[in-house]
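Submission sheet (multi-component)
Chains listed below:
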Amino acid sequence: MWLLQRVTAAFLVLVLAFHFFLLHFYHHAFEITFAGTQTRMQDIGYFATMWLFLVTATFHGVNGVYNALVNQGISGTPKTAVKAILGLAGLLLVAQGTRVALYMNGFLA
Amino acid sequence: MSQSYNRGLVEDFSRWKEFSAGMWAWIFHKFTGWVLIGYLFTHIAVLSTAIEASSASSSAISEGTDVYSTTLTLLESTFVVRLLEVGLLAVAVFHILNGIRLLLVDLGIGLESQDKTFYASLVLTGAIIVASVPTFMAGLGGA
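Outcome: structure written.
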């Protein structure tokens, strides 16, 4: 888990930089439209990158919150409950993000 | 593997002047991490308007009057949202720079100069934020 947290961090640095530059510097955020999003998401490489971005960001974030709470001193039942709740929240976020991405690229309609 | 560590009550303001650079780095890393995970959930919630937008007519989509486009346009025309975006960039940049610093310290590199690298992270974050303000404020109020 230590290694995975670092590996996802390295990936996120690169993809987050790409995401920021593309959607704030190349295209401006105020110019984003559904038509433009559809066009980008229909590119399989872009879609795959964004989906991996979602999964790694969710893992890194949820695992980071769990680590912070363990570091803070939770143990026993609260620790088990936090693990279950964060795991479920992460899965739901990835499920909803995937659903949204599939609507964006036209696979679901 | 995470371990617990008793740092005392961080919210006790009177202790703040006693904190070392490493303690501030730890506090800022936790704070920016909480903000970023909170933003991730919010971001997906906002982008979920794409589900309804996908059933809009092709003319509405090409004209940008679907709910996804209008929601993003409304948010981006709000000054507070633009300010929050700059704040989001600030927390993301600091979290990244401090994360790289933590990784190097974990690998045994630069432990003796960890306070200097923390200050460098803050200065670099500030510089990137100042440089990006014009881009983040572009197009606001029809400019």
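Remark: Chain A touches chain B through 46 residues (CB under 8 Å).
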